[in-house]
Amino acid sequence: MKKLFIASLLGFLLTACDGENKTVNTETTTEKTTTEQVAQKEESEIKAIMLERIAEKPFTKNAKGTVIFNSVTDMFDDFGTFSLEDKNIKVISEKPLSIQLFHNTFPKLDAKHQIMDVEDVFISSLLKVFTYTNTNEITLEVIPVDLKTKKPINKKYNYKTTVSREKALEILKTYSSANSFDDLVNFDKNDPNNIVGYSGSDISIAIRNDKVRSYVANALKTGKLTVPTEYVIIPIGFDMNTLAEKLVKFDSSVFIQTRKLNDGNNAYRINLGEVVMLEGIGKEKKNLDYLTVQFGFVNDQNLILQMLAALSVSSTITPNSDKTFKEMTKMVDKASKMLKKQESIKIKSIVDGFTLELSIHKNLGGLSYFTIKKLETRPMKFQ
User: Fold this and answer.
1) Burial of 239 (0-12, 13-18, 19+ CB in 10 A)
2) Does the model's pTM come out above 0.85?
Protein backbone atom coordinates (compact mmCIF):
# COMPACT_ATOMS: atom_id res chain seq x y z
CA MET A 1 0.00 0.00 0.00
CA LYS A 2 2.87 2.30 0.86
CA LYS A 3 4.62 1.57 -2.54
CA LEU A 4 1.33 2.36 -4.34
CA PHE A 5 0.98 5.70 -2.50
CA ILE A 6 4.57 6.71 -3.29
CA ALA A 7 4.12 5.78 -6.96
CA SER A 8 0.91 7.86 -7.12
CA LEU A 9 2.63 10.79 -5.46
CA LEU A 10 5.56 10.62 -7.87
CA GLY A 11 3.16 10.50 -10.79
CA PHE A 12 1.32 13.60 -9.51
CA LEU A 13 4.59 15.50 -9.01
CA LEU A 14 5.92 14.58 -12.49
CA THR A 15 2.64 15.66 -14.07
CA ALA A 16 2.74 18.95 -12.19
CA CYS A 17 6.33 19.53 -13.28
CA ASP A 18 5.40 18.84 -16.90
CA GLY A 19 2.56 21.31 -16.64
CA GLU A 20 4.80 23.99 -15.21
CA ASN A 21 7.46 23.55 -17.87
CA LYS A 22 5.18 23.53 -20.89
CA THR A 23 4.88 27.32 -20.98
CA VAL A 24 8.53 27.92 -20.11
CA ASN A 25 9.89 25.70 -22.97
CA THR A 26 7.65 27.06 -25.73
CA GLU A 27 10.32 29.40 -27.11
CA THR A 28 13.01 26.70 -26.91
CA THR A 29 10.80 24.22 -28.72
CA THR A 30 9.87 26.81 -31.36
CA GLU A 31 13.54 27.71 -31.91
CA LYS A 32 14.46 24.05 -32.22
CA THR A 33 11.66 23.42 -34.71
CA THR A 34 12.63 26.49 -36.76
CA THR A 35 16.30 25.42 -36.84
CA GLU A 36 15.34 21.92 -37.97
CA GLN A 37 13.07 23.31 -40.68
CA VAL A 38 15.85 25.58 -41.99
CA ALA A 39 18.30 22.66 -41.99
CA GLN A 40 15.79 20.46 -43.82
CA LYS A 41 15.15 23.23 -46.36
CA GLU A 42 18.88 23.74 -46.98
CA GLU A 43 19.38 19.99 -47.35
CA SER A 44 16.46 19.72 -49.79
CA GLU A 45 18.06 22.43 -51.96
CA ILE A 46 21.28 20.41 -52.27
CA LYS A 47 21.33 18.57 -55.59
CA ALA A 48 24.43 16.51 -54.80
CA ILE A 49 24.48 13.30 -52.76
CA MET A 50 25.29 13.47 -49.06
CA LEU A 51 27.30 10.49 -47.81
CA GLU A 52 25.34 10.48 -44.56
CA ARG A 53 22.39 9.02 -46.48
CA ILE A 54 24.24 6.10 -48.03
CA ALA A 55 27.35 5.44 -45.90
CA GLU A 56 28.06 1.90 -44.78
CA LYS A 57 31.21 2.69 -42.80
CA PRO A 58 31.49 5.11 -39.88
CA PHE A 59 33.15 8.43 -40.68
CA THR A 60 33.63 12.00 -39.57
CA LYS A 61 34.46 15.14 -41.54
CA ASN A 62 37.37 17.54 -41.23
CA ALA A 63 37.06 21.32 -41.08
CA LYS A 64 36.89 21.56 -44.87
CA GLY A 65 34.19 18.89 -45.10
CA THR A 66 36.31 16.01 -46.41
CA VAL A 67 35.09 12.58 -45.32
CA ILE A 68 37.50 10.95 -42.84
CA PHE A 69 37.23 7.19 -42.19
CA ASN A 70 38.29 5.49 -38.97
CA SER A 71 40.77 3.20 -40.74
CA VAL A 72 42.49 2.63 -44.07
CA THR A 73 40.70 -0.69 -44.54
CA ASP A 74 37.31 0.99 -43.97
CA MET A 75 38.22 3.65 -46.52
CA PHE A 76 39.28 1.21 -49.26
CA ASP A 77 36.26 -1.00 -48.56
CA ASP A 78 33.86 1.96 -48.83
CA PHE A 79 35.36 3.03 -52.15
CA GLY A 80 34.89 -0.53 -53.36
CA THR A 81 38.48 -0.94 -54.50
CA PHE A 82 39.99 -3.31 -51.92
CA SER A 83 38.42 -5.14 -48.98
CA LEU A 84 39.35 -7.67 -46.32
CA GLU A 85 36.30 -9.70 -47.31
CA ASP A 86 37.55 -10.03 -50.90
CA LYS A 87 41.04 -10.80 -49.58
CA ASN A 88 42.69 -8.28 -51.91
CA ILE A 89 44.05 -6.17 -49.07
CA LYS A 90 46.40 -7.45 -46.39
CA VAL A 91 47.38 -5.60 -43.24
CA ILE A 92 50.98 -6.53 -42.49
CA SER A 93 51.06 -4.43 -39.32
CA GLU A 94 48.96 -1.75 -37.63
CA LYS A 95 51.82 0.13 -35.94
CA PRO A 96 53.67 1.09 -38.03
CA LEU A 97 50.95 0.82 -40.66
CA SER A 98 51.91 -1.50 -43.49
CA ILE A 99 49.53 -2.92 -46.07
CA GLN A 100 49.55 -4.81 -49.36
CA LEU A 101 47.02 -4.27 -52.14
CA PHE A 102 46.43 -7.04 -54.69
CA HIS A 103 45.37 -5.35 -57.91
CA ASN A 104 43.54 -7.38 -60.56
CA THR A 105 45.07 -7.03 -64.01
CA PHE A 106 45.45 -8.79 -67.34
CA PRO A 107 48.72 -10.76 -67.42
CA LYS A 108 49.03 -10.39 -71.21
CA LEU A 109 49.29 -6.61 -71.07
CA ASP A 110 52.56 -5.34 -72.55
CA ALA A 111 55.13 -3.91 -70.13
CA LYS A 112 54.29 -0.27 -70.93
CA HIS A 113 50.58 -0.59 -70.18
CA GLN A 114 51.16 -2.87 -67.21
CA ILE A 115 53.36 -0.22 -65.61
CA MET A 116 50.87 2.55 -66.42
CA ASP A 117 48.07 0.52 -64.80
CA VAL A 118 50.00 -0.23 -61.61
CA GLU A 119 51.27 3.36 -61.32
CA ASP A 120 47.71 4.63 -61.54
CA VAL A 121 46.54 2.38 -58.68
CA PHE A 122 49.68 3.13 -56.66
CA ILE A 123 49.22 6.92 -56.86
CA SER A 124 45.46 6.85 -56.36
CA SER A 125 45.65 4.53 -53.34
CA LEU A 126 48.37 6.50 -51.55
CA LEU A 127 46.65 9.84 -52.04
CA LYS A 128 43.35 8.41 -50.82
CA VAL A 129 45.06 7.22 -47.63
CA PHE A 130 46.18 10.75 -46.77
CA THR A 131 42.99 12.41 -48.04
CA TYR A 132 40.33 10.24 -46.40
CA THR A 133 42.08 9.06 -43.22
CA ASN A 134 44.24 10.68 -40.53
CA THR A 135 47.18 8.39 -41.33
CA ASN A 136 50.56 10.14 -40.91
CA GLU A 137 52.77 7.47 -42.49
CA ILE A 138 52.25 4.24 -44.37
CA THR A 139 54.16 1.45 -46.04
CA LEU A 140 52.13 0.43 -49.07
CA GLU A 141 52.79 -2.19 -51.72
CA VAL A 142 50.70 -2.70 -54.84
CA ILE A 143 50.98 -6.22 -56.21
CA PRO A 144 49.39 -6.88 -59.63
CA VAL A 145 47.69 -10.29 -59.78
CA ASP A 146 46.14 -12.33 -62.57
CA LEU A 147 42.45 -11.39 -62.87
CA LYS A 148 41.45 -15.07 -63.06
CA THR A 149 43.99 -17.02 -60.98
CA LYS A 150 44.68 -14.23 -58.44
CA LYS A 151 48.37 -15.12 -58.59
CA PRO A 152 51.05 -12.38 -58.77
CA ILE A 153 52.09 -11.85 -62.39
CA ASN A 154 55.67 -10.60 -62.01
CA LYS A 155 57.54 -9.02 -59.10
CA LYS A 156 59.11 -6.42 -61.37
CA TYR A 157 55.70 -4.73 -61.58
CA ASN A 158 55.28 -4.45 -57.80
CA TYR A 159 55.30 -0.90 -56.44
CA LYS A 160 56.27 -0.40 -52.80
CA THR A 161 57.06 2.62 -50.67
CA THR A 162 57.09 4.07 -47.19
CA VAL A 163 55.91 7.66 -47.28
CA SER A 164 54.82 10.26 -44.76
CA ARG A 165 51.89 12.65 -45.01
CA GLU A 166 54.32 15.57 -45.21
CA LYS A 167 56.28 14.07 -48.11
CA ALA A 168 53.15 13.02 -49.99
CA LEU A 169 51.80 16.57 -49.71
CA GLU A 170 55.08 17.98 -51.04
CA ILE A 171 54.82 15.65 -54.03
CA LEU A 172 51.17 16.58 -54.58
CA LYS A 173 52.04 20.30 -54.57
CA THR A 174 54.95 19.76 -56.97
CA TYR A 175 52.99 17.90 -59.64
CA SER A 176 49.58 19.60 -59.42
CA SER A 177 47.89 22.88 -58.57
CA ALA A 178 46.72 21.47 -55.21
CA ASN A 179 47.72 23.10 -51.93
CA SER A 180 46.24 20.44 -49.66
CA PHE A 181 44.76 16.94 -49.80
CA ASP A 182 41.31 18.56 -49.57
CA ASP A 183 41.90 19.87 -53.11
CA LEU A 184 41.56 16.27 -54.31
CA VAL A 185 37.93 16.27 -53.17
CA ASN A 186 34.78 17.62 -54.84
CA PHE A 187 32.56 19.81 -52.63
CA ASP A 188 30.09 20.91 -55.33
CA LYS A 189 26.59 20.67 -53.84
CA ASN A 190 24.91 21.44 -57.18
CA ASP A 191 26.29 18.42 -59.04
CA PRO A 192 23.74 15.56 -58.79
CA ASN A 193 26.47 13.04 -59.59
CA ASN A 194 28.76 14.24 -56.82
CA ILE A 195 29.03 12.85 -53.29
CA VAL A 196 29.97 15.95 -51.30
CA GLY A 197 33.34 15.66 -49.56
CA TYR A 198 33.86 12.16 -50.97
CA SER A 199 34.02 12.17 -54.77
CA GLY A 200 37.31 13.10 -56.39
CA SER A 201 38.00 16.52 -57.93
CA ASP A 202 39.50 17.21 -61.36
CA ILE A 203 42.92 17.46 -59.72
CA SER A 204 42.63 13.87 -58.43
CA ILE A 205 42.42 12.81 -62.08
CA ALA A 206 44.99 15.25 -63.46
CA ILE A 207 47.66 14.05 -61.00
CA ARG A 208 47.54 10.67 -62.78
CA ASN A 209 47.48 11.79 -66.42
CA ASP A 210 50.03 10.67 -69.00
CA LYS A 211 52.19 13.80 -68.62
CA VAL A 212 53.00 13.39 -64.93
CA ARG A 213 52.02 9.85 -63.87
CA SER A 214 55.49 8.35 -64.01
CA TYR A 215 57.04 11.38 -62.27
CA VAL A 216 54.52 11.19 -59.41
CA ALA A 217 54.89 7.42 -59.01
CA ASN A 218 58.68 7.64 -58.97
CA ALA A 219 58.61 10.50 -56.44
CA LEU A 220 56.32 8.50 -54.13
CA LYS A 221 58.59 5.44 -54.47
CA THR A 222 61.96 7.15 -54.04
CA GLY A 223 61.20 10.49 -52.41
CA LYS A 224 63.11 12.24 -55.22
CA LEU A 225 61.28 14.96 -57.11
CA THR A 226 62.03 15.58 -60.78
CA VAL A 227 60.06 18.40 -62.38
CA PRO A 228 59.10 17.53 -65.98
CA THR A 229 59.58 20.02 -68.78
CA GLU A 230 57.39 20.89 -71.73
CA TYR A 231 57.61 22.81 -74.98
CA VAL A 232 55.90 26.19 -74.87
CA ILE A 233 54.99 28.02 -78.08
CA ILE A 234 56.55 31.47 -78.28
CA PRO A 235 54.44 33.69 -80.57
CA ILE A 236 56.24 34.48 -83.83
CA GLY A 237 54.15 37.60 -84.42
CA PHE A 238 53.68 37.44 -88.21
CA ASP A 239 50.90 39.07 -90.25
CA MET A 240 48.61 36.78 -92.28
CA ASN A 241 47.74 39.70 -94.57
CA THR A 242 51.38 39.92 -95.63
CA LEU A 243 51.40 36.24 -96.62
CA ALA A 244 48.17 36.69 -98.57
CA GLU A 245 49.70 39.59 -100.53
CA LYS A 246 52.69 37.44 -101.46
CA LEU A 247 50.50 34.52 -102.53
CA VAL A 248 48.53 36.75 -104.92
CA LYS A 249 51.51 36.39 -107.29
CA PHE A 250 50.69 32.68 -107.59
CA ASP A 251 46.90 32.87 -107.31
CA SER A 252 45.01 36.16 -107.66
CA SER A 253 41.87 34.72 -106.06
CA VAL A 254 43.35 34.03 -102.61
CA PHE A 255 41.56 35.35 -99.52
CA ILE A 256 41.66 34.74 -95.76
CA GLN A 257 39.02 32.60 -94.02
CA THR A 258 38.62 32.76 -90.24
CA ARG A 259 37.35 30.16 -87.77
CA LYS A 260 37.25 30.06 -83.97
CA LEU A 261 39.16 27.32 -82.14
CA ASN A 262 38.14 25.71 -78.84
CA ASP A 263 41.25 27.00 -77.04
CA GLY A 264 40.24 30.62 -77.66
CA ASN A 265 42.60 31.16 -80.60
CA ASN A 266 41.61 31.86 -84.20
CA ALA A 267 42.67 30.00 -87.31
CA TYR A 268 43.28 32.15 -90.39
CA ARG A 269 43.32 30.04 -93.56
CA ILE A 270 44.42 30.77 -97.12
CA ASN A 271 43.62 28.13 -99.74
CA LEU A 272 45.93 27.78 -102.70
CA GLY A 273 44.06 25.40 -104.95
CA GLU A 274 42.03 22.45 -103.60
CA VAL A 275 44.71 20.78 -101.49
CA VAL A 276 47.40 23.30 -100.57
CA MET A 277 46.59 25.58 -97.64
CA LEU A 278 48.34 27.92 -95.19
CA GLU A 279 46.85 28.35 -91.74
CA GLY A 280 48.05 30.81 -89.10
CA ILE A 281 47.04 30.29 -85.45
CA GLY A 282 46.72 33.04 -82.86
CA LYS A 283 44.51 35.71 -81.33
CA GLU A 284 44.89 38.37 -84.02
CA LYS A 285 45.42 38.17 -87.77
CA LYS A 286 48.31 40.64 -87.63
CA ASN A 287 50.12 38.98 -84.72
CA LEU A 288 50.00 35.18 -85.08
CA ASP A 289 51.76 32.47 -83.06
CA TYR A 290 52.65 29.78 -85.61
CA LEU A 291 51.97 28.62 -89.14
CA THR A 292 50.97 25.29 -90.72
CA VAL A 293 51.17 24.46 -94.42
CA GLN A 294 49.02 21.63 -95.76
CA PHE A 295 49.88 19.98 -99.08
CA GLY A 296 49.65 16.69 -100.95
CA PHE A 297 52.76 14.56 -101.24
CA VAL A 298 51.83 13.24 -104.70
CA ASN A 299 53.36 13.21 -108.17
CA ASP A 300 51.25 16.01 -109.65
CA GLN A 301 52.92 18.97 -111.35
CA ASN A 302 50.35 21.57 -110.28
CA LEU A 303 50.31 20.38 -106.67
CA ILE A 304 54.10 20.40 -106.54
CA LEU A 305 54.23 24.01 -107.80
CA GLN A 306 51.56 25.05 -105.28
CA MET A 307 53.46 23.30 -102.49
CA LEU A 308 56.71 25.06 -103.38
CA ALA A 309 54.90 28.41 -103.53
CA ALA A 310 53.34 27.81 -100.11
CA LEU A 311 56.65 26.74 -98.55
CA SER A 312 58.48 29.67 -100.11
CA VAL A 313 55.99 32.22 -98.76
CA SER A 314 55.75 30.56 -95.33
CA SER A 315 59.55 30.66 -94.94
CA THR A 316 59.37 34.48 -94.95
CA ILE A 317 58.08 34.52 -91.35
CA THR A 318 61.57 33.45 -90.23
CA PRO A 319 64.65 35.73 -90.03
CA ASN A 320 66.47 34.01 -92.92
CA SER A 321 63.84 32.87 -95.41
CA ASP A 322 66.36 31.49 -97.93
CA LYS A 323 68.00 29.32 -95.29
CA THR A 324 64.62 28.13 -94.01
CA PHE A 325 63.26 27.33 -97.49
CA LYS A 326 66.40 25.40 -98.35
CA GLU A 327 66.02 23.31 -95.17
CA MET A 328 62.33 22.70 -95.89
CA THR A 329 63.00 21.37 -99.39
CA LYS A 330 65.80 19.24 -97.98
CA MET A 331 63.36 17.71 -95.47
CA VAL A 332 60.83 17.03 -98.25
CA ASP A 333 63.50 15.28 -100.30
CA LYS A 334 64.52 13.16 -97.31
CA ALA A 335 60.89 12.22 -96.65
CA SER A 336 60.33 11.12 -100.27
CA LYS A 337 63.06 8.50 -99.87
CA MET A 338 61.67 7.30 -96.53
CA LEU A 339 58.16 6.88 -97.95
CA LYS A 340 59.25 3.82 -99.85
CA LYS A 341 59.47 1.87 -96.57
CA GLN A 342 57.20 3.77 -94.17
CA GLU A 343 53.48 4.57 -94.12
CA SER A 344 53.84 7.74 -92.05
CA ILE A 345 56.81 10.03 -91.48
CA LYS A 346 57.72 12.73 -89.01
CA ILE A 347 60.86 14.86 -89.43
CA LYS A 348 61.96 17.79 -87.28
CA SER A 349 64.65 20.39 -87.82
CA ILE A 350 65.64 23.66 -86.13
CA VAL A 351 66.73 26.72 -88.10
CA ASP A 352 67.69 29.97 -86.31
CA GLY A 353 65.61 28.99 -83.28
CA PHE A 354 62.54 28.08 -85.35
CA THR A 355 61.27 24.49 -85.23
CA LEU A 356 60.28 22.98 -88.58
CA GLU A 357 58.10 19.86 -88.38
CA LEU A 358 57.12 17.78 -91.40
CA SER A 359 54.55 14.98 -91.11
CA ILE A 360 53.40 12.88 -94.06
CA HIS A 361 50.56 10.34 -94.03
CA LYS A 362 50.85 7.91 -96.93
CA ASN A 363 47.68 6.08 -95.88
CA LEU A 364 45.74 9.36 -96.25
CA GLY A 365 46.69 9.80 -99.88
CA GLY A 366 49.93 11.59 -99.09
CA LEU A 367 48.32 14.35 -97.03
CA SER A 368 51.17 16.31 -95.43
CA TYR A 369 51.74 19.15 -92.98
CA PHE A 370 54.66 21.52 -92.49
CA THR A 371 54.59 23.50 -89.24
CA ILE A 372 56.78 26.47 -88.34
CA LYS A 373 56.92 27.21 -84.62
CA LYS A 374 59.14 28.93 -82.13
CA LEU A 375 59.41 26.67 -79.08
CA GLU A 376 60.99 27.03 -75.67
CA THR A 377 61.58 24.36 -73.04
CA ARG A 378 60.19 25.29 -69.64
CA PRO A 379 59.30 23.52 -66.39
CA MET A 380 55.80 22.14 -66.74
CA LYS A 381 53.03 24.22 -65.19
CA PHE A 382 50.09 22.42 -63.65
CA GLN A 383 46.65 23.97 -64.01
Assistant:
1) middle
2) no
